[in-house]
Design a protein that fits this description.
This protein is mainly alpha-helical and 170 residues long. The protein has a domain of 118 residues: Winged helix-like DNA-binding domain superfamily/Winged helix DNA-binding domain (Arc Repressor Mutant, subunit A, Orthogonal Bundle), CATH 1.10.10. The protein is 58% helix and 8% strand. A hairpin with a 7-residue loop joins strand 2 and strand 3. Helix 1 runs antiparallel to helix 5 and helix 2 crosses helix 5. The longest helix has 29 residues.
Length: 170
């Protein structure tokens, strides 16, 4: 099929692609809405806090955090500025490289992510996990990995491609 000279998708391929495209377009909003409503956090802000909560010392270099959240440094800096204003994150120079900046989850930020995590987990369960059998979930994870492996890697999402990304949250 991959070597097929026909550039068009057949009906089955088109059906699959349109469903993937719909999920890509609709899922972020469906995950964002309950977080916004119940915790006043966007999905992206939650992901920033969550990535910090999982880091040793609740600290990450901004460049690493941008990679883990698949964001530009500009977008991440804007969001971290808002999280900083809320008292959930602080920024400081890296002790290893004074040119680099680290984001640090504050105790209030820890409380916020702990408060928001069940809302996010509930949404993920309702929208994805609980709708699939264990076998389907394993297949879904495999299919997603195949697609991730095919995507160009420019050092963003690198962490999501590693075995460590498969570990469960504490």
């Amino acid at each position: 099929m991959c070597g097929d000279s026909n550039p068009w998708l057949d009906a089955t391929q088109q059906r699959a692609w349109r469903r993937v495209a719909a999920v890509i377009q609709l899922l972020p909003g469906a995950l964002d809405a309950p977080l916004q409503r119940e915790t006043q956090l966007s999905l992206f802000s939650y992901m920033v806090l969550a990535m910090l909560s999982e880091a040793p010392g609740h600290t990450r270099r901004m460049t690493d955090l941008a990679s883990l959240t698949n964001a530009s440094l500009s977008r991440l800096s804007h969001v971290v500025r808002r999280l900083e204003a809320a008292g959930w994150v602080s920024r400081q120079p890296s002790p290893d490289d004074r040119r680099a900046t680290q984001a640090v989850l504050t105790p209030a930020g820890w409380d916020k992510v702990v408060d928001a995590a069940p809302v996010h987990a509930r949404s993920v369960r309702e929208l994805i996990i609980d709708r699939l059998s264990d076998e389907q979930l394993a297949q879904f994870a495999e299919v997603c990995q195949i697609i991730l492996d095919a995507l160009p890697c420019d050092d963003r999402l690198t962490a999501l491609r590693s075995p460590l990304a498969d570990r469960a949250a504490p």
